[in-house]
Amino acid sequence: MENLTLTGLLKKTAEQFPSRRALSASGKYDLTHARLQELIDKAASNLIAIGVKPGDVVALTFSNTVEFVIMFLAVIRARATAAPLNAAYTQDEFEFYLSDSESKILLTSEEGNQAAQAAASKLKILHATALLSHADGVSGDINLSSSSLPDTNTDSDLKSVSEIVNDPSDVALFLHTSGTTSRPKGVPLTQLNLATSVTNIKSAYKLTETDSTVIVLPLFHVHGLLAGLLSSLGAGAAVALPSAGRFSASTFWSDMITYNATWYTAVPTIHQIILDRHLNKPEAVYPKLRFIRSCSASLAPSILNRLEESFGAPVLEAYAMTEASHQMSTNPLPEDGPHKEGSVGKPAGLEMAILDENGIQQPAGVNGEVCIRGANVTKGYKNNPEANKAAFSFGWFHTGDIGFMDSEGYLHLVGRIKELINRGGEKISPIEVDAVLLWHPEVAQAVAFGVPDDKYGEEINCAIIPREGSNIDQEEVLKYCKKNLASFKVPKKVFITDNLPKTATGKIQRRIVAEHFLAQISAAKVSKFGA
Questions:
Q1: Which run of H or of E encompasses 329?
Q2: Do 1-11+31-166 and 421-529 agree at the fold level?
Q3: According to DSSP H, which parts of 205-267 are helical?
């Protein structure tokens, strides 16, 4: 049973490696695995004392802090459900997410979060703050504070948490999909889902107690939470949180060196930021990395090659989604096989198939929908029978992604079903156009997207961010595209910009980019011709 729950997995690891470093906050703390477990149990007992019951949903909105990690794992330890939320949400957004998740308590840092607290107050949800006391780098106790909380520091509380037995079927984590095409869907993930995912990730990258990483992604998102934090803790490895509570290119490498990092995982946008800083302001020395992981969006082969050349480590692209508790496939470590640019690797710890619309499995090289099944996959969306009917059919979970398997079993993604551009009957993968644009030496970032067109139904546009000092223009981009793409794939219009709209996790979403630039065109027309 222990290995079937995330809680049991982390406890077992702490017993194996009690004195090894588990969690560091730059310049503040260094917690061992044993000490981290003590703090988790103390915080879980505090939660029970304030009335948190098994199955209750506890919302957490923090930056990447030690308090977040402790309270997140304490919620799960208490058999409640953790619902991490982006601290940058507006009050209206907090109201939606708190209401949709049916949260009973809101946890924040001692500084609080005005928008979240206003939403919680409106919904009559209890608010509490968490603070880890410390002196000279030594942690004290984790304390909960609220005007309505009872005293939580009693021996009976600690006894009560020791009697709790976590079950694989407990819903431990509640997240929402990013909602690129509709209202965000609620995704419940169980202790078994999370334990399976952690085990799969740990196994794929051979993570051990000698590994160390620096978290660059927000921990309210499944990528940073599962791949960066929990998989490391599950391996007995070490995790460092940046001093500012979020990624900073200026301190990233110094943190990596300070904490003897052996790897890191990030979205392509952050890889590009790290690469650009290296090109413009290289460090005197870089750590020796076992590998660099990329996930959550397509990584252009040109970026992958530049990363490998710059930092001397294999770049392993992976494929993941919230509904699968993150990872579904990954390119292997060099000793386990080749890693292929343009591919998201082989299935990792689950079954994967390419199905046509009738549920028939497709042979190598033939496009279809990527479908999965395994112990890491959610049983279904919360209160959403229509979405569940669409997502679960023929005995598989349907990802909504189009791709194909090559003859060696590597998955190649073509794009989201709803993002494929249908230009007069020709189906175009925007990922392919992105990759070509990013090969241009003067292009730093690029994204292709579909826009409505009277003649063809849809037409391709693209937006690029030029490299620093470049004077590249639309004519040069189109000339390059005509040389490297079939004529029907060449963008009709190129937007040159210094910024692309991104999600809170650094992902570029085509729908949002398309809406942004279409709004610019509309505004320009109004300005030219009058409202």
A1: strand 326-330
A2: no
A3: 222, 231-234, 249-258
Place of tokens 């065109």: 521
CA angle at 82 for the pair 77 and 86, rounded to the nearest 5°: 145
User: How confident is the model at residue 163, as a pLDDT?
Assistant: 86
Q: Where are the beta strands (DSSP E) in 374-473?
A: 392-393, 396-405, 411-416, 421-423, 426-428, 443-453, 457-466
Q: How many CB atoms lie within 10 A of CB 290?
A: 17
What is the Cα–Cα distance from 205 to 291, expressed in whole angstroms? Answer: 9
**What is the rounded CA–CA span in Å between residue 217 and residue 222?**
9
Task: Count CA within 13 A, CB hemisphere, residue 143.
Answer: 13
CA separation for the pair 495, 16 (Å, rounded) = 55
How many whole angstroms separate alpha carbon 480 and alpha carbon 484? 6
Q: Where are the domains of the chain?
A: 1-11+31-166, 421-529
The one-letter amino acid at 429: S
| 59, 61, 83, 382, 436 from 102: Cα distances, Å | 9, 15, 10, 11, 45
CA-CA-CA-CA torsion sign (299, 177, 75, 245): positive
Which tens digit of pLDDT belongs to each residue from 171-214? 999 999 865 445 789 999 999 999 999 999 999 999 999 999 99
How many other CB atoms are there within 10 angstroms of residue 310's CB atom? 15
CATH no. of 421-529: 3.30.300.30
Q: Is 448 helix (H, G, I), strand (E, B) or coil?
A: strand
The residue with tokens 């729908």 is 511
Q: Where are the beta strands (DSSP E) in 159-221?
A: 171-176, 186-190, 212-214
Task: Give the integer Cα–Cα distance in Å for 408 and 346.
Answer: 9
Task: Specify the 3-state DSSP secondary structure of 140.
Answer: strand
Q: Tell me yes or no: is domain 1-11+31-166 CATH 3.40.50.980.
A: yes
- Tell me the pairing of strands 368-373 and 351-355: antiparallel
Of 258-262, 400-404, 511-515, least confident by mean pLDDT is 511-515
pLDDT of residue 453: 83
Nearest C-alpha neighbor of 221 from the set 112, 289, 295: 295
Burial class (CB in 10 A: 0-12, 13-18, 19+), 36: buried
Angle at 12 between CA 11 and CA 14, to 5 degrees: 65
SS (H, E, C) 464-476: EEECCCCCCCHHH
**pLDDT tens string 210-244:** 999 999 999 999 999 999 999 999 999 999 998 77
Q: What is the pLDDT of residue 90?
A: 92
